[in-house]
RNA sequence: GCGCUCGUAGCUCAGCGGAUAGAGCAGUGGACUUCUAAUCCACCGGUCGCAGGUUCGAAUCCUGCCGGGCGCGCCA
């Protein structure tokens, strides 16, 4: 569905071209002074050596706008202020309302997108660091999937490497069934720490752990069985956390580091054959173009260590090759913290030089900042440890339960618990997604659970409140061809906001700036409450009522869909 | 030292080349015989870290400085 901006662009671009003698961008944007403004005349003025206001006037005289706009004015130094006519807006809203996908079409040319996210470590607790990757990655999955792309969820589990020697020996010390029980119950911190303490304190344990690593890498069946046990129990635990979080990751999405083990030799071999490999202090490395260290020397990606073991660079390269060549992916997303940005940029460059990442296929680092406490420092528990993710979820739900009970005591116990779940989990996710993902953000219970402001509870409530209009009126959204009348200022504002949804979603699919979707939903919800405040719905009649009911229903659908794309559930009533 | 990143109202954040910089929270003052006031309306509040530069125009781009965070060859 064409956006308002697109409609104006289609009319103005040829007019600008007429005046400029060459293609010129109308540079359209939303405006405080009108619905939209076109600033292209200012940029043209210099090129043409003419007065920008004259250019704007000439552009306007060349463009057919009378069927779209009720007002076209030149203002200030040469802005073209454009105000849609009510008659132009109404049918567009009607079209959107009658469309099951809210005006958002499926991609004509679907991509295969591999999204690498979450990536917890086996036998280690999930903590706040995994929250962002999991929540952002899940939103990416939802948006791209909804747009009709083929999405492959890749949970790059940390399931291989030297710590497994110590973990397996600790498992044996505990007894297999005891150990498995502890892991599946989710006391991963305890398990890992106990192993770590023994490793640091006990030389004979350390020796056993080292031998165990050798056995693991050598493929010893008994060792592999124990390793598998650790992995399986951890996966069960992670799946339970994912279930609570309401993300789409499943048991089929685990593609841990070990998945790529068999490919590592051939990665090294192929890099050697192409001539990218260099010996450095006995290690095999690749120096990607454009990366230097503090002395200006080239910076390597280590693929094979001195001792013959593989570096994580090798695994990352194997994953790229697998994803582009076997999965035929043309877009690779890495939802990984910003500190690892340079590492991945280097790996992508190696992959490009090796011919494993060639256009149109591309890799995109979807980086994110840290979660800070209200003191402005990295969020940690009082003892200085990282906070267990499940504890955070528990606290969110119990805090939400208190609010819900206070706000709406009429709800029965089961509904209340259900609402608390959605509100609490939604609040945590929304707090994350509503901030620019590249920046650090402050984790503040009070703010995220506030029912006012840019929060999940506010949006959930706004939507529940709309549903209650229909419940209260014992009425459903008008069926058949929608009747839309746009007359009141609050109606116009709502119409324009609603119509912005489709193109926004397409932008988000590219930029993965989910905070813009969050900001949009917040603006939509507040625009709706103003509409609701100023335009009676149930107390109106005839076509006006039909129109308002349809716009209310459409708003509720957009809110629900938008929240769904962010991975946030919305209760029917709250 | 080099690299990346951030510095916008008391607090938390948008805005990232265009007209007097926007929200929310907090503060102050209004509006409930209600379509859920979990709301709405209004006021208060900012030399956009500092200094240069590019531009008709800079919070936005470039350079330098100051301050915070994070990386920098075998952990991923």
C-alpha Rg, in Å? 28 Å
Number of strands: 13
CATH homologous superfamily assignment of the domain at 456-565: Isoleucyl-tRNA Synthetase, Domain 1
How would you sum up the major sheet? 4 strands, antiparallel
The number of helical runs is 21
CATH-scheme architecture of the domain at 456-565? Orthogonal Bundle
* Widest sheet: strand ordering: 1-2-4-3
**Oligomer classification:** single chain
Q: What is the percentage of strand-forming residues?
A: 5-15%
Helical coverage, percent range: 40-55%
Structural class: alpha/beta
Query: What's the mean pLDDT score?
Result: 90
Reading off the top of the CATH hierarchy, the class of the domain at 456-565 is best stated as: Mainly Alpha
How far apart, in Å, are the first and last alpha carbons?
A: 33 Å
Coarse morphology:
globular
